[in-house]
Amino acid sequence: MDQIYPYRNDRKVRMQQEQTDQGKLQVTVLTEDGTRPVENAMVRISYTGVPDSVLEEVRTDSSGQTPVLDLKTPPLEYSMEPSEQQPYAEYTVQIQAEGFEQEEIAGTEVLPDVLAQQPVRLKFQTRQEFDRIVIGPHTLFGEYPPKNTESEIKPIRETGEIVLSKVVIPEYVVVHDGPVGENSAQNYYVRYKDYIKNVASSEIYATWPADSIRANVLAIMSFTLNRVYTEWYRNKGYGFTITSSTAYDHKWIYGRNVFDSISNIVDELFENYLSRPDVRQPILTQYCDGRQVQCRDRGWMTQWGSKTLADQGYSPIEILRYFYGNDMYINVAEEVSGVPSSWPGYDLNIGSTGIKVRQLQEQINGIAEAYPAVPRITADGIYGQKTSEAVRKIQNIFGLPQTGITDYPTWYKIQEIYVGVSRIAELNG
Q: Residue 247: pLDDT above 90?
């Protein structure tokens, strides 16, 4: 259609060029299984709808990453208050790499003052075609079905209703990309943290205050873990954990980009959920935007309301209690599935010694097999300068604060990467 009416292309270009603020975009290209970086991939960035207007043309490094690119965005204030103006810019990302199928992602969202991270997974070449992913509008800007009201605590006495005996952070969730009952919709296996990052990037703006993001991430995680804990859909005969429909669950968008401000908070909080006294299951914390859909009378959180409270200095738990009541608490899951050994309970830094340091060093060396930018180190159980430098490089590659200290988010990120790399090595062995 754009080829038939070329003036529409001109209008899109003009709108993009008139944007006044700047955001950042970094593209990470991996193999389809997500365990190996793709080096020297050609990445082209253009205005969405005008793919021939290439703005940037860069190649990925040995970690599969492009340089961080500065791109134009609408003004920051569009995302800080409800607005009729679209608060984010949309770009198209085209990827080519020798031995892989071409891919194109249309609609990568870039907001001002934050880093947008666009992951890409390339399939090994089997045909002379390319995959195209189209990212739909953000839920605070587009129109989506409102959430159907459910009880926040599921009845335990019903046969087969509650299956799990304790709250477990799953390694993966199975996302049904459509409403319940739409049999043609595809199911995707998605890492739990990646799912939460995707949903939060689809449902709130990454420019909001950090404590507003934390409150919303906690609500998203608790809702998701309620679906996991109760095996809600599996007990109804479906083969998935959760849907991508806003009428039933949260908006998850296949292939979309996430934002570093949201990603870092999910890494910080991923073991948490919300609970009430004497209730074992995570609370099904429902919410709405508070502008297009009203839900305050149902005792739900409103997303714009959470942002206003954070502006006023409310903490995450104060925001959550404002909407859900004073008997809402932040809890910690008993187990993280798929992680070979648990967090030691304290930061590992220069001078730390012992079995946890040795385990960390061995895992870093395993990661270095797939990521050559990560230096190999001696697994001697002593956290020295070389271990700190290797940790800093991993933090750099995977978007964590580059401290060289193995804190809670860094520990679990290293575990996650190591498990993925080890599994592929075992399959290939």
A: yes
